[in-house]
Amino acid sequence: MKEKIQSEFKNHFGGEGILYASAGRINLIGEHTDYNGGYVFPGAIDKVIMAAIRPNDTEKVRVFSIDINDYAEFGLNEEDAPKQQWARYIFGICRETIKRSGIVKGFDAVFAGNVPLGAGLSSSAALESCFAFALNDLFNGNTIDKFELARIGQSTEHNYCGVNCGIMDQFASVFGKKGNLMRLDCRSMEFEYFPFNPQGYKLVLVDSVVKHELVDSPYNKRRQSCERVAKRLDVETLRDATKEALDAAKSDISAEDYFRAKFVIEEKERVLDVCDALNRGDYETVGRLMYETHQGLSKDYEVSCEELDFLNDIAKECGVTGSRIMGGGFGGCTINLVADDKYDHFIAEAKKRFKEKYGHEPKIYDVVISDGARKVTE
Ligand code: ADP
Ligand code: MG
Q: Considering only CA atoms, which of 227, 175, 198 is closest in space to residue 40?
C-alpha cells in the first residue's frame, strides 16, 4: 500500500509525502450503552486508511483518492467546501482543527485504504483520524491532545457529513493500540486498555450485507424507552440503575420498556465481566458473554433481524466460541471469536447456508487488534 500511495503521489505532485495511517475498529461488547452513560469496548484493527501528505506552501489543499479515483482541490475557509463526499471528510478535519485554533496550511495528499466502506468497521473514522493526526503532526507540533483529535473527527461527521455519531469510532481509531482493547466509560470519558491476544482464536466479522430500512425510527424509540425508565428510577441514565431497582418498579413500567432497560443494565455488567475474563486470559468466558449480548439484543432490545439471528445460530452450531451482532442492529455484521480449528468449517458453513437461504454470500473480514493513528515510519 505504501509503495502504491507514494508512486501516485509522485505522479500527481512529484517527490514524496510523509506517510500517516489510521485504523478502522471493532467493538467487542457494549452495544447501545453509549447513550445510556455505560461502557463500550472497541479496538483498532489491521485495516487502515493511509495517506502521503506534504505541505505545499499555498492556502490550498490538493488531494487524490486512489480508491475512488477522484481528485479534489479546496481552500481552507468555510465557503470552500468541496462537492465530493469523500473530500468533505478531509475538508471537515481542516475546518474543525482551525476552529479549535489549530494551524492548517495548504498541503498535497494521496490516500488509499482497505477498511471496507459502510460495513460497520468505520472507514470514515479511519479517514478522519488519519488526517487529524497528520495535521497535528505537520502543522501543530503535536500540541492538540488525542481526545481533541477524536472530537475533531466526530465534529466533522456532525458538521460536514450529516452523521450524528457518538465518539466511539474516532476514539478507537485515534487511541488504538496493538493487542489491546479499550474500555471507554461514556459518562466520564475515562478509558483503560485491556490486553487482547487471543492465542489460538481468530476474530472474524461476517457481514450479512443486508440493511433493513427503519420505518419507525426504532433507534429513537429505544432511546426514549431508556430515558423513560431512567426517569422513573430517578437516575440520570441507566448507567446508575440496578436490576433490583428495575424489578422493584416493574409494575409501573411497560413490558417493552422493562426489557429494553433490562438489556442495558445487563450489558453494562457484561462489559465488566469481559474485562475480568480478559485479565485472566479466559476467552471462553468472553465468548459466552458475546452470545449473551446477542440474545439480549435479539430478544430484549429487539434490534436483530432474521439474517443476523441465522448467522448467530450457525456460529453456535459450528462450536464458535463467541458470536454477536456488532453495531446498532437491523443488519450489518456479526463479530465472532473462533477457535483456529473451527474456523474453516464455520466460514464454509456460514457462506453456504446463508447463500442457500438469502441468495448471496456474506462477506468475511478477519481482523487483528492493531495500532490506531500514527506516522508510518518503516
Ligand atoms: P463506515 O461505516 O465505513 O464508516 P460511512 O458511510 O460512515 O461508512 O463512511 C464511508 C465514506 O467514507 C465513504 O462514502 C467515503 O466518502 C469515505 N471513505 C472511506 N474509505 C474511503 C477510501 N478508502 N477512499 C475514499 N473515501 C473513503
Ligand atoms: Mg462511518
A: 175
- The proportion of the chain whose per-residue pLDDT surpasses 70, expressed as a percent, equals 99
The x, y and z cell numbers of residue 21, run together, are: 495511517
Ligand 1: does its nearest atom lie under 6 Å from the Cβ of 312? no
Element spanning 40, H or E:
strand 39-40
113 lines ligand 1 (CB under 6 A): yes
**pTM assigned to the model:** 0.94
Instruction: Report CA-CA distances (Å) from 56 to 105, 107, 315, 340, 356.
Output: 8, 5, 52, 49, 54
Closest CA to 298 of 287, 310, 288, 286: 310
**Residue with CA closest to ligand 1 atom 16:** 86
State yes or no: pLDDT of 32 exceeds 80.
yes
> With contact defined as beta carbons under 8 Å apart, do 293 and 303 qualify?
no
Map grid coordinates 433481524 to a residue. 305
Question: What's the average model confidence in pLDDT over 237-260?
Answer: 97
Q: What is the DSSP string of 190-247?
A: -EEEEE---TTEEEEEEEEEEE---SS-HHHHHHHHHHHHHHHTT-SSGGG--HHHHH
Q: 79: which 3 cell numbers?
A: 465557503
